[in-house]
Design goal:
By secondary structure, the chain is mainly α. It has nine helices and three strands, in the order αββαβααααααα. The longest helix has 48 residues. Belongs to the ATPase A chain family.
Length: 289
């Protein structure tokens, strides 16, 4: 097999394992990036879905284990860690969310831990799990990405779920009239009914853009930061695999340095997504009428 070029190596690592309808009408896995592109909207990124579910289960089992072993006596390390994390999230919710909703704190905890675990996969050496998957399947050309948050489908999926909650609680708290009033009577208002009616299209355009920007900003911020981090790891891996001792040594040093710095990015992005979700849901619970 011919040696893979640096460009081919990078493109291979940035391509998801995609399942969908092939050009011949059958359903199966894409063997090239072009095939994956031609599958269109109803293609599934199996690696993203698989790792998202797997890491979600780890979160559930970890916290379930901590809850079952919880004691009022001398707590273990896991219980201490979980309690500190819960207190941190609960404090963030109390400081930011001004309504009354028992869902917000568990939702914030789930978002923070789940996104953190998905981001954390970026610290696994870029070739380790893809090569392991290729060895198991016997397919050296297998596409396999292990960081779900570097896939815009995953980040948009989470952001749209938050957006659905924003709309739901906006209507529940303010009523359908209050929700539509926010979209059509703000930010420009007037005591003159005729002027107010004439301003409705302008108000709606401005408020709709503001509303739809919330999930888009949530998704793109997380995706952009994690995608850039993954790309840097891949570029370092290209340097490391060059075979030159000096460059390889530099590659190892750069990899460790970036990994240490990236831990901050991983945590910060999970925290930002959680905090913005709390803020947006707090705004949805505000009834100004």
């Amino acid at each position: 097999m011919a040696e893979q070029t640096a460009s081919g190596y990078i493109q291979h690592h940035l391509q998801n394992l995609t399942f969908g309808q092939l050009p011949n009408g059958d359903w199966g896995f894409a063997h090239t990036a072009q095939e994956a592109k031609e599958m269109g909207f109803w293609a599934f990124h199996v690696d993203t879905l698989g790792w998202s579910v797997f890491l979600g289960l780890i979160f559930i089992l970890l916290f379930r284990s901590a809850a079952k072993r919880a004691t009022s006596g001398q707590p273990g390390g896991l219980q201490n860690f979980v309690e500190v994390l819960i207190e941190f999230v609960d404090g963030s919710v109390k400081d930011t969310f001004h309504g009354r909703n028992a869902l917000i704190a568990p939702l914030a905890l789930t978002i923070f831990v789940w996104i953190f675990l998905m981001n954390l996969m970026d610290l696994v050496p870029v070739d380790f799990l893809p090569m392991l998957a290729a060895t198991i399947t016997g397919n050296d050309h297998l596409f396999f990405r292990v960081v779900p948050t570097t896939d815009p489908n995953a980040t948009l999926g989470m952001a749209l779920s938050v957006f659905a909650l924003i709309v739901f609680y906006s209507i529940k708290v303010k009523g359908i009239g209050g929700f539509l009033g926010e979209l059509t009577l703000h930010p420009f208002g007037s005591k003159n009914i005729v002027v107010q009616i004439l301003l409705i299209p302008v108000n709606f355009l401005l408020e709709f853009v503001t509303l739809i920007a919330k999930p888009i900003s949530l998704a793109l911020r997380l995706f952009g930061n994690m995608y850039a981090g993954e790309l840097i790891f891949i570029l370092i891996a290209v340097m490391f695999g060059s075979g030159m001792f000096l460059l390889s040594t530099l590659g190892v040093a750069l990899n460790w340095a970036w990994a240490v710095f990236h831990i901050l990015i991983i945590t910060l992005q999970a925290f930002i997504f959680m905090m913005l979700t709390i803020v947006y849901l707090s705004m949805a619970h505000e009834d100004n009428h």
